[in-house]
Every structure is written in structure tokens, then in C-alpha cells.
Amino acid sequence: MHENADTAADRDNGDILHQRVLTLFCEALEVNQSQPMDVLEHLATALGKVYREVADSHLPPRNCVCGWEPAEYSDVHSLQFALARAALSRDASSLALSPVIGHA
Ligand SMILES: [Zn+2]
User: Fold this and answer.
1) What pTM did the predictor assign?
2) Is residue 99 in a domain?
3) Neighbour-count burial of 70, counting CB atoms closer than 10 A to its CB (0-12 exposed, 13-18 middle, 19+ buried)
4) Is residue 64 part of a domain?
5) How many domains does the chain divide into?
6) Helices in 1-104 by DSSP H: which ranges?
7) At the N or C end, where does the chain have fewer CB atoms within 10 A?
8) Distance in angstroms (rounded) separating the CA atoms of residues 72 and 98
9) How many A from CA of 101 to the centre of ligand 1?
10) Cα of 57 to ligand 1 centre, how many Å?
11) pLDDT in tens, 67-92
12) Measured in angstroms, how far is the CA atom of residue 73 from the centroid of ligand 1?
């Protein structure tokens, strides 16, 4: 992860994204009457598609002006590591999660 990952602003942004993704997860679980892992796989696929779209916008001929240069394999490895670290962490969540999450 990038060097400013421990700043309070980054933690706040992470908490906001966590809350939004959790809301999407709960909505998809309820609307589709799906199993939790099916919804989680759809979310992971959606994140992969976002990566592809953002990376494509940084490659020729589109070349975003921010200067980021996608490195697909190392970027995807970083994303996989972030997912595993968060998923396997036993740290208490920063959100007040309902005990019924994952049970439609
Ligand atoms: Zn950019």
C-alpha cells in the first residue's frame, strides 16, 4: 500500500469505502436472495473490472495526467494481498457491524 496508508484521512476514507461496500453487499444479499460468498465474488469481480478500467485510462493512448503507471501483475498482487490481510485479520472492525450480516 502507499506510504500514507496510516494517516487518519486514509483510515477515514477506508472506513467510508468499507461502509459503502458493506451496504452494497447487504442490498445484494437481500435483493437477490444470494449466498454470501456469491455476493462477495461479484464484489471482487466488480473491483477487478474497476482496476481494468482505471488501468486502461492510464495506458496509451489515453494516458491520465496523474502520472500513475499501471503494473498489472504487481498491482493485482497488491490487491490480492490487501484482500487476504483484511479477510484473515482478527482485528475488531472499525464499524459497528450487525451480527446478522451475511444472513439474509
Ligand atoms: Zn490518473
Assistant:
1) 0.76
2) no
3) middle
4) yes
5) 1
6) 8-32, 36-56, 72-88
7) N
8) 36
9) 35
10) 7
11) 999 999 999 999 999 999 999 998 75
12) 18
